[in-house]
Amino acid sequence: MSSPDPQFSDKHGRAPHGAEDRPEHGEGVRQPRNQAAVRRPGPVIAVTGAASGVGAALVQRLTASDEVKEVVAIDERRGDCAAALWQVLDVRDPAIAEKLRGADVVVHLALDLDLETDPAARTAYNVRGTQTVLTAAAAAGVRRVVLCTSAMVYGALPDNDIPLSEDSELRATAEATGVGDLLEIERLGRRAPRAHPGLNVTVVRPAVLVGGTDTALTRYFESPRLLVVAGSRPTWQFCHVDDLVSALEYAALEKVEGELAVGCEGWLEQDEVEELSGIRRMELPSAVALGAAARLHRIGLTPSPAGDLAYTMYPWVVSVSGLHAAGWRPRWTNEEVLAELLQEVAGRHTVAGRRLGRKDATAAGAAGATVALLGAAAVVRRARRRRGI
Fold first, then answer.
1. Buried b (16+ CB within 10 A) or exposed e, 146-159
2. Are 72 and 87 in contact (CB under 8 A)?
3. What's the rounded Cα separation, in Å, for the pair 352 and 371?
């Protein structure tokens, strides 16, 4: 476990007491840096979940910025960016408060939204981690915490405005993968400034995130047919990881605040997605699709609960007016992000959210695998009826 001693300069640029006695190797050791970089003005920004994914990309971006004085990278393992000051610990460890002392802003990205993670363990990590970071940030004198959730918190509903304004009511339920965690994180973020006056909390909510990601929504495009529920109106708005990172940088540099959505301009209708992707649809009645999805998840055949289907049925497109007002613009279009997503998932085979191996996919066939899974759910249902379950 890391030492609780602070390992970075304070807000006035002073080195912490005893810095000259630190070992040359180990946790919290500063990598060699040029003096100009050390003296540059700007905030000290800490990033959790810094060793991989969005966190790693943000650390690289912030360390290259002339507007940032210092980047403190926090994770359970050391990442690749030598220009950051690494602190190796679990974000649920109360010792993180000392690691944050001297930081001006914390960007909290240490979340587990993996489809294969046990839901109870995932929630325990996500909620407890966020709670600890918010409390530690307040205790350390941090003035701003940036949280990253998802536009999924607005909910996918047939009566949603297109697009939703950023101050729209959060109408999602906890029925989709990880959304319950995200709603609780949002609740903690709203409560924190009341419990800790002087602490500002900014929330960034990306649309369907693409760029090295694996979610129920990206797996949708790994299927041999795009499942469309009869009578629904799917709309698709994407967010490339590069654009999310630049939006988080805006928030970390305090150029924006409040609750912010981030994504490409506009949206794509389902017909446009099918035309661009070249993947044909498979249309099912609502009762069949939702019932089969629920049964398949309940018996452990698929990682995605039935609630994930709503996000492929109804609109949840968001306005990005808050970032626009600050001068931010996405570099990617929906069409470009969809093209990248299709390249990323090429060669993968997923049916009803369950990823198949090449052997399974070859043996079952594209449509055959879908029919087999739906048939398996029907068999289970008939068997349970015979047993009176």
1. bbbbbbbbbbbeee
2. yes
3. 10
For the CA atoms of 239, 244, 246, 248, the dihedral, rounded to the nearest 10 degrees, stands at 150
How far apart CA 39 and CA 184 sit, in angstroms, is: 39
Q: Which tens digit of pLDDT belongs to each residue from 361-388?
A: 434 333 444 444 554 444 444 545 555 5
CA distance 190 to 89: 26
Please tell me the predicted confidence (pLDDT) of residue 388: 55
46 neighbors 103 (Cβ within 8 angstroms): yes
- The predicted structure's pLDDT at residue 306: 82
Give the list of residues 6+ apart from residue 120 with CB closer than 8 angstroms, or none.
none
User: CA torsion, points 175, 179, 184, 190, in degrees to nearest 10?
Assistant: -130
Residue 49 CA to residue 54 CA, distance in Å, equals: 8
pLDDT over 70, % of the chain: 79
Query: Residues in the chain with pLDDT < 50?
Result: 1-37, 358-372, 375-381, 383
pTM of the model: 0.82
pLDDT at 145: 98
Residue matched to tokens 């325990």: 124
User: What contacts 119, CB < 8 A, 6 or more positions away?
Assistant: none
Say how far apart CA 317 and CA 338 lie, in whole Å.
Answer: 15
Q: Hey, what are 39's tokens? A: 């003296």
Whether residue 330 has a cis bond before it, omega within 30° of 0 = no
First CA to last CA across the chain, in angstroms? 49
Residue pair 61/249 in contact by the 8 Å Cβ criterion: yes
Count the residues in the chain.
389
Cα torsion at 372, 373, 376, 377 (round to 10°)?
-140
Spatial separation of the C-alpha atoms in residues 227 and 357, rounded to whole Å: 20
Nearest partner of 147 among 262, 52, 44, judged by Cα: 262
Q: Is 181 helix (H, G, I), strand (E, B) or coil?
A: helix
Token readout for 352 is: 């009803």
- What is residue 347's predicted lDDT score, i.e. its pLDDT? 78
| 244, 262 contact by CB (below 8 A) | yes
Asked whether the beta carbons of 337 and 210 are under 8 A apart, the reply is: yes
